[in-house]
Amino acid sequence: MNNKKTKPLFIVMSAPSGCGKSTLIDMLLQEYHDIVYSISCTTREPRGDEEDGLDYHFLTTERFEELLAENAFIEHAKVHGNYYGTLRAPIEEVLGEGNSMILDIDVQGAAKVREYVRSLPNTDPLKIGYVDIFILPPSIDELRARLVGRGTDSPATIERRMANAEGEISRAGEYMYKVTNDELDVAYKRLCDLIDALSGRM
């Protein structure tokens, strides 16, 4: 792997459920040792074997609200009574070290990040390195087949996911780049080529 110094990127990635985004991100993290995964903060309780600092930064509501008051987040939301948010400082730190940061976030969160980045001065590292990518399914029918094939969701959940997916896909045009995940290896190659070109790795 060529690890020569490259332009640090702040990569924001979104996709409907079932499009293989998590798999693609895992593949990137295994191959690119200069890409760091952004860990979100939340006030909800850990689930199962989730670990603090690995899955999420688990914060008290008081601490989250203190950070909110300090404008420490580039985006945040309250979902089912719990806060979720992305801190600015860790991104700055990673980019400052010459590495890239990847943020896995939904369409609404990505829109907030985009708005935040637009408001920054042109000299800000987050703005200089910013890139957002939307992962598309080959078709809506194929996405439905994948969700059914996983065998983990009830028909009602699948219908809800499909409705969400159509809404999210309708906003794919807000993203700078779109990658269709028809075949995983092909989609991964497209993603790598894109990141290599943007970071000057070519």
Topology, element by element:
Layout: E1 10-14, H1 21-31, E2 35-37, E3 41-42, E4 57-58, H2 61-69, E5 73-79, E6 82-87, H3 88-96, E7 100-104, H4 107-118, H5 125-128, E8 130-136, H6 140-150, H7 155-169, E9 177-180, H8 184-199
Parallel strand pairs: 1-7, 1-8, 2-7, 3-4, 8-9
Antiparallel strand pairs: 3-6, 5-6
Helix pairs in contact: 6-7
Descriptors for this entry?
single chain; 202 residues; alpha/beta; Rossmann fold; 5-stranded parallel β-sheet; 4-stranded mixed β-sheet; 8 helices; 9 strands; 20% strand; globular
What does this entry show, briefly?
The protein is α/β, with parallel strands linked by helices and 202 residues long.
Task: Report what the structure shows.
The chain is of the alpha/beta class and 202 residues long. It has a domain of 131 residues: P-loop containing nucleotide triphosphate hydrolases (Rossmann fold), CATH 3.40.50.300. 43% of the residues lie in helices and 20% in strands. The chain contains 8 helices and 9 strands. The strands form 2 sheets. A 5-stranded parallel beta sheet has the order 2-7-1-8-9, with helices on both faces. A 4-stranded mixed beta sheet has the order 4-3-6-5. Strand 5 and strand 6 form a beta hairpin. Helix 6 runs antiparallel to helix 7. The longest helix is centred in the C-terminal third of the chain and has 16 residues. The model has no long low-confidence stretch (mean pLDDT 94).
